[in-house]
Amino acid sequence: MFSAPEYDAEFISIPGRSGDIINPNRRFANIKVTYTVFLARKNIAALAAVLRDIKGWLYSEPDRYHEITDSYDAEYFRYGVISGNLDIEEQLNKVGSFTVTFNCKPYKYSLAGQETVSADASELTITNPTAFESRPYIKLYGSGAVALLIQPQGRGMMISDLDEYIEIDSELMNCFKGTALKNDTVKCAEYPVFKSGVCTINCTGDEILSEKNIDAFNGAQGRILYVLWQEDGISIRSLSIKCGLAITSLTTMLERMEHQGLIRRIQSETDKRKTLLFLTEKAHALKGEYDSVSDEMGSIYYKGFSEEEITRFEECLDRIRKNLEEWQKS
Length: 330
Description:
330 residues; alpha+beta; seven-stranded antiparallel beta sheet; 17 strands; 32% helix
């Protein structure tokens, strides 16, 4: 009745060594769930009509999963799709019943877990009452650079350019905004999961900008401004290399910054095919505020570091940057 999925792992035998090595693929395989159906009608015509309806229902949209609920386990549901052929008439004639087999995802889903839990604060507590890990869907609102941390397991996620909102689906292992993929704006070792018991979601972002009433730009845009404060009037490709952001990500950010009155685009006089980026007076006036924020962030980052350690660390980062620049030019 309660089928359990098989853990997908490879067992490797090594000559001369007792016991196999487990090479896990870190996933569970689909399972087959079979139901026995008893069906009785007063005459053959009535039975045939019902059978046509059952077949039409079972084989409608066989290319996607459907919710399957069990009356004996009303608090959970599965995602499944019809599996194999269906000989209803033959089975009914022989034994008075027939079986239906579904190919189901390995997990059951809690109906209570489908309820939306929301919070306006930067911290949210969630309780997973089951003995199994839960892979959540998270919709995060905000802007700029954001760090997401799930406790007590300590799984973190960095979002470089949160634009209004982002959707994080841990089961699909994808990040998106509506129909647009946002995986290129996210860095993480693993997607968020909720262990059994009480879990806490912590979200940190551009609090220092907010505390100083700086709302003209967010953290991600600050990287662009910093580069242009050092060298105004460069191409988008040069900006991409210097600030470490993909051109596809930059395009949307630059459009927004242009709308905010922070940058302007001017066609190159020497190469009409090239567009150069220049800061506006408004952007130049923000440099003092940016330097203040940068100094404060530096004191947070380098707390407990000696000057020698800071210098050595920044030299290593500069070498990495140069390696990336050389790789992009090759």
